[in-house]
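User: I'm writing a tutorial on reading structure tokens. Could you give me a worked example: one chain, its sequence, then its tokens, then a sentence or two explaining what the tokens reveal?
Assistant: Sure. Here is the example chain.
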Amino acid sequence: PGLFVVCVYGGYFNGGLGILLMALYGATGETRINTANGLKSLISLVLALASVAAFAAAGSVDWKAAPIMMVGTALGGYWGAKWAKRLPSAWVRAVVVITGVVMTAIFFLRAA
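And here are its predicted structure tokens:
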């Protein structure tokens, strides 16, 4: 049920999805950070493909900006996964927590 709720959120508004997935995996007992990170990447890929298909079918895609976003996302996913496998688990965990705190603060300040 938790994965369903997170995926519904992520399909509409992807901001912080990775942090939510990592927290969900931790809450369900996954202790290996690299395994959780790999699962997060896989779920994010599947969710992004499904979301893009739904938004494209609805005519809600800015096709001029889409190629730039696709290249940036692919490069970020590739390099992020490559670095995450090389870094110690404590560093990956710290980056996840810091990113979550910073993103939360930014979204909170923008809403205020």
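What the tokens reveal: The CA atoms of residues 54 and 60 lie 9 Å apart. The chain has a mean pLDDT of 86.
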